[in-house]
Design a protein that fits this description.
heterodimer; A: alpha/beta; TIM Barrel; 8-stranded parallel beta barrel; two-stranded antiparallel sheet; 11 strands; B: 2 domains; 4 strands
């Protein structure tokens, strides 16, 4: 494998190892200030509220780098872009000094309705043009790159004319946006669509990848669901190792959203990534 | 399917949304009128719109999204309305939730506002009876707790600031209440019932009896408590923007007792509200001394 460090296009930092900030851990974090390189927040949980979560977030943002990751930007929707929502995102980003912010390659609703889920697009030229145009508008408005994640998908539209990885790679290059490569989602999607996850990863434009997600999922036999409710399986770690070897280091984050364990369990699980990172660091040539 | 015949992106999105949000699941959603009008070919051949996988049919793949839609939103409603659910029973509660979600899909980016209309929905659609009447009142309190949890922060007036209001200022002073305060006039002793649930588990359904509850956030903690009717009226009058003098006159009209007794009662109410931080600093409403 290639061990040369490949910088991302924007020279955004490798933040190291982080976990998703969840309410269950607010008290532990603010009482113990545990070792953690950075936290990712779910943007919508801190918008339109001035309650306790924001109070905790303000304290945490003073001590750790924060990345904002959303689920409702609905970039792929055919509804108009919600500029008021972008204003709220920008305000939150300024408040927590977000290192970057992003969402998913998906749509979450149409006709003014929000399904609160990550719905897949048909991977067509029309869909791609639509996404590219929307990403450009959003990036221009926010004046920063948008970091978009490959979603777990459970169906394929018959009208799709290209594989998901090609759609995402072309989107990143043509819209000039950043990517959050969720290797668990790659595994889940490939299982659900009988695809090769290695081929998927090999199609990614790594100079656009600024972040990696890790998570557990539920394997129902006939299909996998991206449940974020357990440890990362070995196959996903292997995919992570492959990504790391291609990039030489990207901010890596563990998501754990259901059956959430105590914070030390998260530290231990995301800490496993250090082994893959160290392996690559050790093998990296001394002189660039 | 050839590209020339491929449905437009907007059509696909509207169709899929109609399908996965159908309360009877994806197969019923495909056959239902909203989806059928958008993509009639899907009713003849669903595979022409959504491909099957090796293990799942097209309908089963859509059903993953349909199942997750209701599962996710029902979980939110269960978390927000635990005592309402206990009163109605799981089956009746979830039936009501599904009907509510079917008629009131989320139109907000955050889930905090998903159930804003749920108590009113229950009031309109539950059959009459003490159990359901209590459930509506409890749902109103539980929703108010959600509202004040997220409400904007306002600096509460301190006891010293409050004490500095001279008697001569009552005619013009208005005391703005904090945004994180809700006043609920109820038909049942719903707050007592919720307290009993917390301590005993399964109290009996009470008979109707008008109660007056306030729900508020102090610091970042949410509280709820009952008020006597006159105190509630006074607080409601202040919240509506009446001057202190007008609010006091209206709420104490007809109340028996000497001037000293009334003054003592008022003093006790205001001390309680002041300690609870229910009034915000009025800013330019009047000049604070000291």
């Amino acid at each position: 494998m290639n061990q040369i460090k490949l910088p991302n296009r924007w020279k955004l930092p490798d933040l190291g190892l982080g976990v998703g900030l969840r309410t269950q851990h607010f008290r532990h974090i603010t009482e113990h200030w545990p070792a953690m390189d950075w936290f990712e927040i779910l943007s919508e949980n801190f918008i339109d509220t001035e309650g306790r979560p924001l109070w905790f977030l303000d304290q945490i943002a003073e001590r750790y780098p924060i990345v904002m990751h959303g689920v409702c930007l609905s970039v792929g929707s055919t509804d108009p872009v919600d500029f008021k929502f972008l204003d709220k995102l920008a305000a939150l980003a300024a408040r927590v000094k977000a290192v970057w912010l992003g969402d998913h390659v998906c749509w979450t609703g149409v006709a003014g309705i929000n399904g609160h889920d990550l719905y897949p697009l048909p991977y067509t030229e029309e869909g791609l043009r639509h996404m590219i145009a929307r990403v450009r508008i959003i990036q221009d408005y926010l004046e920063r790159p948008l970091v978009l994640e490959n979603p777990s998908t459970y169906l394929t539209f018959a009208s799709s004319s290209m594989p998901e990885e090609e759609f995402i790679a072309r989107l990143a290059i043509e819209a000039d946006c950043a990517l959050l490569l969720d290797v668990n989602n790659v595994y889940v999607t490939c299982r659900n669509h009988d695809l090769d996850p290695v081929a998927y990863l090999d199609a990614m434009p790594y100079e656009h990848v600024v972040q990696v997600h890790l998570a557990g999922h539920t394997d129902n036999g006939t299909h996998c669901i991206d449940t974020h409710d357990g440890r990362v399986i070995d196959e996903v770690w292997q995919l992570y190792a492959r990504v790391h070897a291609r990039t030489g280091g990207r901010a890596t984050l563990l998501e754990w959203d259901a059956n959430v364990p105590k914070f030390p369990v998260l530290q231990q699980e995301v800490g496993k990534a250090a082994r893959f990172r160290n392996d690559v660091q050790a093998a990296r040539p001394v002189a660039a | 399917m050839s590209l020339a015949r491929a449905p437009r992106l907007e059509t696909i999105e509207r169709w899929m949304q109609a399908v996965v949000m159908h309360p009877q699941g994806a197969a019923a959603g495909v056959r239902a009128r909203p989806a059928r009008r958008l993509l009639p070919q899907a009713t003849r051949s669903l595979e022409s719109v959504v491909l099957p996988s090796k293990a799942l049919t097209s309908a089963e793949r859509l059903d993953i999204y349909a199942h997750m839609y209701y599962a996710r939103l029902l979980e939110i409603l269960r978390d927000e309305y635990p005592t309402t659910r206990q009163i109605l029973g799981t089956e009746a509660f979830e039936r009501a939730c599904r009907r509510f979600l079917e008629r009131n899909p989320s139109r907000h980016k955050t889930l905090n506002r998903l159930s804003e209309r749920f108590p009113a929905f229950l009031a309109r659609h539950l059959p009459r009876g003490h159990r359901n009447g209590l459930a509506v009142d409890v749902a109103r309190i539980e929703r108010a707790m959600e509202d004040v949890f997220d409400a904007p922060h306002a600096e509460p007036m301190t006891a010293a600031q409050f004490a500095a209001i001279g008697a001569d200022e009552w005619q013009r002073v208005r005391l703005p209440v904090i945004p994180a305060l809700r006043l609920l006039k109820l038909k049942y002793p719903a707050n007592d019932f919720m307290n009993a649930v917390r301590s005993k588990g399964k109290p009996r359904i009470p008979k109707p009896s008008a109660t007056f509850a306030i729900v508020y956030r102090r610091g970042y903690q949410v509280y709820r408590r009952d008020q006597e009717e006159a105190a509630f009226k006074l607080l409601a009058a202040l919240a509506s923007g009446k001057t202190l003098a007008a609010a006091v006159r209206g709420s104490l009209a007809g109340r028996r007792g000497s001037a000293d007794q009334l003054a003592a009662t008022l003093g006790a109410w205001f001390r309680e509200w002041s300690a609870a931080g229910l009034f915000s600093v009025p800013g330019r409403t009047f000049a604070l001394s000291g």
